[in-house]
Design brief:
heterodimer; A: mainly alpha; Fumarate Reductase Iron-sulfur Protein, Chain B, domain 2; 5 helices; 47% helix; B: alpha/beta; Rossmann fold; 2 domains; four-stranded parallel sheet; 14 helices; 10% strand
Chain lengths: 110, 320
C-alpha cells in the first residue's frame, strides 16, 4: 500500500468513529497517560488528522507511538473500527514522511 | 527519552543488515537445535522467527536505552547500532544478558520440537535461515523495510523446501499467517501454530501428556486471542495434561495486554501495565502460564509479587 492509499483508507476508516468512547474503558495505556491521545478514541481522531492534514502535534505523536496494538478496544467498538490498523497506518504515514510531526514529546506516564 | 526515530532506525538497520533486530551471531538463534539433529530441508519447517531466543537481548537493549532516557541520545544510539552491526559478538558483552535467560528459551524450543515429534509432526529446521520475521518493523509502520525483510525470509524458507511452517509465538504466527500474504508476491506457505498441532494430537489421542505443575492462571497473549483466535487450544492441552486452568478476570478475547509491545518506546509505561496485569493474575493462582516471550519478559521484569511465571511449554511433559 502506498502512503496515498494508506491515507485514503485511514481517512475513510477513522471517519466511521462516532466518538462514543466505549473503547476507552478497555485501553491499558489511557489510565496511565496524561491525556486522551493515549486512548483509542484519541488515536482514531489523530490518525485521521495525520491522513487528512498530513500533520500531527508532538503530543499526538506520543499518543500514536504509545499504543500497544493490543486490540482490546476493537472488542468494545460498536462499529468494529480497525483501531490498531489505524494506529499502524498513522505510524507508516509518519515514517514515510507523508505526515509530519514537529517532534515528539516523551511518552509520559502518570 | 531516547528518540523514537533512533530506536526504530536501530531495529530496521540491524534487521536489514543482519537478519536480526539486535545484532548477535546467528548461532545464538539456532544453537538450541543442534543437539536434536533436526534436518535442514523438508516440507514442514519449524520457524521460530528468533523471537524467543532474542528476547533476553531485546529486553537488555530496552533497559540500556532506558538508561539513556533524558539525555540527547539519538546520535549515540545510531552510532551504537552501527558499531554492533559491524561486530555482533560485542552485543553479548555490552548487554550481558544472564546466562540463564539465554538458556531458558533454548530449553523451551527444544521441548516444543520434541512435542511436535511426539505428535508425529517431524519438522525440518532452517538453522542460519531462522531469521527474524520483521514483525516489530511492521508494527512500527516501517513498511518498506518490513517488505524487504519479509521477501528475504520467504525466499530463504522456500529455498529450504518449506511448504508449511510451524510457528511458536503469537507475533510471528500472526505476521506469517495474516500479514506476509499482503506484502510478499505469490506467498504460499501454510502456517500452523504448534499449539494448534499439539491440541489436535492430544484430542485424537496420538499424544498423552502429564503435568509439571498442579494449577495455573492463564494469561492469553493479545495476538493469539484477538488476532488469531487461538484461545481454546492452550486450555485443551493444559487440561489434557491434568493441569488445573484458572481464568483471570479478563481472559480469552477480553484478555489484558502485558504491556510488552511499548517496551522499546517507554519501559516505564510497559512496567506499569504489567503490574496491573500481575495483580489480576495473582487473584487466581501463584503460578502464571504465558505463551509469548514478550509477555514472559515484561511480566517477569515487573514481578514484585513473587509469582512463578512459566511458559506453557514448561507446564507439561509428553508421556513416552
Amino acid at each position: 500500500m502506498t502512503p496515498e492509499e494508506a491515507a485514503e483508507w485511514v481517512s475513510r476508516e477513522s471517519s466511521r468513529c462516532m466518538f462514543c468512547g466505549f473503547c476507552e474503558a478497555a485501553c491499558p495505556t489511557l489510565p496511565l497517560g496524561p491525556h486522551r491521545a493515549y486512548g483509542p478514541r484519541g488515536r482514531v481522531y489523530l490518525a485521521g488528522l495525520a491522513a487528512r492534514r498530513g500533520e500531527l502535534g508532538a503530543e499526538g505523536a506520543a499518543g500514536i507511538y504509545s499504543c500497544l496494538l493490543c486490540a482490546a478496544c476493537v472488542e468494545r467498538c460498536p462499529a468494529r473500527i480497525d483501531i490498531p490498523g489505524l494506529v499502524r497506518a498513522a505510524r507508516m504515514l509518519l515514517a514515510e514522511g507523508y505526515a509530519r510531526a514537529p517532534g515528539m514529546v516523551p511518552v509520559r506516564v502518570l | 527519552m531516547a528518540s523514537v526515530r533512533a530506536v526504530l532506525e536501530f531495529l530496521a538497520d540491524s534487521t536489514l543488515k543482519t537478519g536480526l533486530p539486535v545484532p548477535v551471531p546467528m548461532e545464538e538463534v539456532y544453537s538450541w537445535a543442534i543437539p536434536l539433529g533436526l534436518p535442514r530441508s523438508g516440507r514442514v519447517h519449524l520457524y521460530t522467527g528468533a523471537l524467543y531466543q532474542l528476547m533476553p537481548y531485546i529486553e537488555r537493549l530496552g533497559r540500556y536505552l532506558e538508561s539513556l532516557e533524558g539525555s540527547r541520545s539519538a546520535a549515540a544510539i545510531l552510532r551504537l547500532a552501527r558499531a554492533l552491526i559491524a561486530a555482533p559478538r560485542f552485543t553479548r558483552t555490552l548487554l550481558s544478558p544472564e546466562p540463564q535467560a539465554l538458556e531458558r528459551p533454548r530449553a523451551i524450543l527444544s521441548r516444543i520440537a520434541r512435542f511436535l515429534g511426539a505428535a508425529g509432526y517431524y519438522v525440518a529446521y532452517p538453522y542460519e535461515g531462522d531469521l527474524y520475521s520483521g514483525v516489530l518493523l511492521y508494527d512500527m509502520g516501517l513498511d518498506d523495510a518490513f517488505a524487504e525483510v519479509a521477501s528475504r525470509v520467504y525466499r530463504v524458507l522456500k529455498e529450504a523446501g518449506a511448504e508449511e511452517i510451524v510457528t511458536v509465538d503469537p507475533h510471528t504466527t500472526h505476521v506469517m499467517r495474516s500479514v506476509y500474504p499482503k506484502y510478499v508476491d505469490g506467498y504460499d506457505l501454510e502456517v500452523r501454530n504448534y499449539l494448534e498441532v499439539l491440541a489436535e494430537a492430544v484430542d485424537s489421542g496420538r499424544v498423552r501428556l502429564r503435568p509439571r505443575v498442579r494449577e495455573v492462571v492463564i494469561h492469553d497473549p493479545c495476538f493469539y486471542a484477538r488476532y488469531e483466535g487461538i484461545i481454546e487450544e492452550p486450555r485443551r492441552i493444559l487440561r489434557a495434561a491434568g493441569v488445573e486452568v484458572r481464568e483471570p478476570r479478563r481472559s480469552g478475547r477480553m484478555t489484558y495486554c502485558c504491556g510488552g509491545p511499548v517496551e522499546s518506546i517507554s519501559p516505564r509505561l510497559a512496567s506499569k501495565i504489567a503490574e496491573t496485569r500481575l495483580s489480576e493474575l495473582r487473584e487466581e493462582s501463584k503460578t502464571v502460564v504465558v505463551m509469548c516471550p514478550i509477555c514472559y519478559a515484561n511480566l517477569s521484569r515487573a514481578n514484585r509479587l513473587g509469582l512463578r511465571i512459566i511458559d506453557i511449554a514448561e507446564a507439561f511433559d509428553v508421556e513416552v
